[in-house]
Amino acid sequence: MSLGRGSASQAMVVVAVLLCLLVHFEHVHAATYTVGDSGGWTFNTDSWPKGKRFRAGDVLLFNYDSTTHNVVAVDRAGYSSCTSPAGAKVYNSGKDQIKLAKGQNYFICNFSGHCASGMKVAINAV
Ligand SMILES: *[C@@H]1O[C@H](CO)[C@@H](O)[C@H](O)[C@H]1NC(C)=O
Ligand SMILES: [Cu+2]
């Protein structure tokens, strides 16, 4: 009886340790990328993702002046045509952290003309 209880709690400890390792592992492997690097989120950022490997769970940090720019999560059509659908998620803190979902992630600035000037990023997260 007491032996059975002992091994049950040992099993609980093992499970807890495994969970901690899993959380730790994901933490170590999620990277944060500053969009546009030192230049920040601005015009002609569309080529910034080139040559980088992104993983689902990685975080994009958008640094910008919130009085002149924003970040809007859009779909492929919105990215291509530089339009944001009504109800699209708009970020405007000036230092937004956005976690990448698996697959394609598209962000534009929807201040007039900015996206057309390359203030847009398309990122594939594996
Ligand atoms: C940006 O997109 C949001 C969400 O679609 C919209 O409410 C807002 O009016 C847009 N801003 C501009 C400047 O187009
Ligand atoms: Cu802008």
TrEMBL record:
- Name any one GO molecular function: electron transfer activity
Tagged with keyword Signal: yes
Q: Which InterPro entries match?
A: Cupredoxin (IPR008972), Phytocyanin-like (IPR039391), Phytocyanin_dom (IPR003245), Plantacyanin (IPR041844)
The question of whether Metal-binding is a record keyword is answered with yes
Gene3D superfamilies found in the cross-reference section: Cupredoxins - blue copper proteins
The parts of the chain that form a coiled coil are none
Fetch the PROSITE patterns from UniProt.
Answer: PHYTOCYANIN
Instruction: From the Swiss-Prot or TrEMBL record, give the protein name.
Output: Basic blue protein
Organism equals Quercus lobata (Valley oak)
Q: What would be the name of the gene that encodes this protein?
A: LOC115960372
